[in-house]
Amino acid sequence: MNNTQALEAAAIILGSEPTQGAIAYRAEQLEMLPQAVSDIRQVLSQPECTWQDYWAVAQEYEVIKSDYLPELTTQETELITALQKASTEPPTIQVGSIVAHADPYRTLYVAKGEVIQDLGDEVIVAWDHWQNESKKTDRYFRDELRLWQPQ
Length: 151
What we know:
Layout: H1 3-14, H2 20-31, H3 33-44, H4 51-58, H5 65-68, H6 74-88, E1 98-101, E2 113-118, E3 122-127, E4 137-141, E5 145-147
Antiparallel strand pairs: 1-2, 1-5, 2-3, 3-4
C-alpha cells in the first residue's frame, strides 16, 4: 500500500478528506469523544437538568455532535429532545404555579396566589391576601391568569 492509498483508507475510516492535515484534525476531534460523552452524561444525570445546562456543555463539543450522539443511550437522547422542547414552550399554569390575574384593570392583577387544584380548563387559586378571609380560593380559566412576576 502506498502513501496515497494509506491516506485514502484513513480518510474513509475517520470520515475526513484524504490529506494529512484533515486526518490529523479529525483524529484530534475523535480523541475528545470519551470526554464529551462523559461530560454530557454527567450534566444529564443531574436532577433538575435544563436545556441551558446541557447546552452549556454541548457547545464545547458541537464539532463532534454527530460522533457523540450515537454513543448516548436512547433515554439520554430522548431527555435531550425533551429538554430542548421544554425550553421552547412557554411555561404553563399548573398546580403549584404562582399566579396573578391577567387583566391589568382587576385588583388581583397585583395580587399573588398559588394554583392548588387543576380542573382541566379551569384551576383553583388560593390568594395570599385572602388568608384571613372566609373565602380563601376562587376558580378561574387559565387564560384569566398569568404567571406571577414581581413588580
